[in-house]
Design goal:
The protein has 14 helices and 2 strands; from the N terminus they run βααααααααααααααβ. With 316 residues, the protein is an all-alpha fold. It has a domain of 129 residues. The protein starts with 5 loop residues before the first strand and ends with a strand. α1 packs across α3, α5 runs antiparallel to α6 and α9 runs parallel beside α11. The protein has a two-stranded parallel ribbon.
C-alpha cells in the first residue's frame, strides 16, 4: 500500500559529505562484482533486495577495513614513542571506539553504481522473468542464445545478433532471443531494427516486460515521442502497479513540456519505487527536484503545487 503522506527534501547542493568520494568509489567497486552475480530472471522486489545486500555488505567490509587500518596505525604510533630498548613487556592501548554503520551513505553508493556499474545497469534494464514462451526447450537454440549473451556482455553486439538470430531460426517461439536481438540493435543505435524485433517478441508474448518497456525507449531514442508515450501507456495498462511505466512516461511528458503530467507520473513512480526499495527511487527523486527548479525559474510553481497537493506532498 502506498504511503499517503511523505515529506520531500530538495537539496540543490550540500557541503555535508559522510564518505569521501574515494570511499564511495571503493564501496562501489567492491559491490559491482557482487551485483553482476544476481540473476536477471528473478522478480523485481527480490532483485532490489539482493542489490541492497551487495551494497550493505560492501559498506560493512570497507568500514571494517578502514577501522582496522586506523587501529593498526594508532598502535604503531604508540609503540614508536618508545625506544627499542625501552619497550615494555606489555602495553595497554586505550583505543577510541570505532563504530560501524552498515548503511552509511547507502544512497550515495547506490547512485554511484547506477551511473558507473555496468552490471547494475544491465540488471535493472533486464526484465527476464520467465513466461511460457520466454525460453526454448531446444538445445541448439539455447547454445546459440548463450553464445549471444557472452558476446553481448563483451559489447560485441553485431556478433551477438548473429547468434540470437540463429537461436530463433531453430526456435521461432524463443521470446528472450527476439528480445535480445532488439536490445542489441538498440545498443548499435539502430532503433528501427530494434523496434521491429521487439514487435516480433511481442507477437509471441504480448506481456513480455523487456520488449514492452524497451520498445518505448527505442521510440524515444528515435525521437518519436508520441509512439514512445503510446508504448508506455501499453506497459502501464498491463502492469499498472509497477513504477517503470510511469517513470518512463513522466520523462517523455517532460520532454514535450507537459509538466503537470510529467510530475504526476514521476511522483507515482517515486512512491512505487520507494515502496519496494528500488534504486530508481533516487532517479525519480532527482527528476522531481529538477521539475521543481525548472518551474520555479519559469515562475510556474502553481503547477508543482497543484500536483504536490494531489499527493499530499510537503516541501521543506
Amino acid at each position: 500500500m502506498l504511503k499517503n503522506f511523505f515529506t520531500f527534501f530538495f537539496l540543490v547542493a550540500t557541503n555535508v559529505i559522510f564518505f569521501a568520494q574515494n570511499q564511495i568509489d571503493k564501496v562501489s567497486d567492491d559491490a559491482c562484482p557482487c551485483i553482476s552475480q544476481i540473476s536477471t530472471e528473478i522478480k523485481e522486489k527480490k532483485k532490489y533486495k539482493k542489490i541492497k545486500e551487495c551494497i550493505s555488505s560492501s559498506i560493512l567490509k570497507i568500514q571494517m577495513k578502514n577501522s582496522l587500518i586506523k587501529m593498526t596505525s594508532k598502535t604503531m604510533d604508540t609503540l614508536n614513542k618508545y625506544a627499542s630498548e625501552e619497550l615494555p613487556d606489555s602495553t595497554l592501548l586505550m583505543e577510541d571506539n570505532y563504530i560501524i554503520v552498515v548503511d552509511k551513505d547507502y544512497k550515495e553508493v547506490e547512485e554511484n553504481l547506477l551511473r558507473n556499474c555496468q552490471s547494475m545497469k544491465v540488471l535493472l534494464a533486464s526484465h527476464d522473468q520467465k513466461r511460457r514462451n520466454s525460453v526454448s526447450n531446444k538445445k541448439t537454440a539455447n547454445e546459440h542464445y548463450d553464445l549471444g549473451q557472452m558476446f553481448f556482455k563483451e559489447g560485441k553486439y553485431a556478433i551477438a545478433i548473429e547468434h540470437y538470430k540463429n537461436a530463433v531460426a531453430v526456435d521461432p517461439k524463443f521470446a528472450f532471443a527476439w528480445d535480445m536481438i532488439g536490445y542489441s540493435y538498440r545498443k548499435l543505435n539502430e532503433y528501427n531494427e530494434a523496434i521491429y524485433y521487439y514487435k516480433k517478441s511481442l507477437e509471441i508474448d504480448s506481456k513480455g516486460k523487456m520488449p514492452l518497456i524497451n520498445i518505448a525507449y527505442a521510440y524515444e531514442y528515435n525521437k518519436d515521442y508520441d509512439e514512445a508515450i503510446n508504448a508506455m501507456n501499453n506497459y502501464i495498462h498491463i502492469y499498472p502497479n509497477e513504477g517503470e511505466g510511469y517513470y518512463g512516461r513522466g520523462r517523455l511528458y517532460h520532454i514535450k513540456g507537459d509538466y503537470e503530467q510529467a510530475l504526476d507520473d514521476t511522483i507515482k513512480a517515486y512512491l512505487m519505487y520507494s515502496e519496494i526499495n528500488s534504486p530508481y527511487a533516487r532517479d525519480a527523486e532527482y527528476n522531481i527536484s529538477l521539475f521543481y527548479n525548472e518551474l520555479k525559474e519559469a515562475e510556474r510553481l502553481e503547477v508543482f503545487d497543484k500536483i504536490a497537493k494531489r499527493y499530499n506532498l510537503q516541501i521543506d
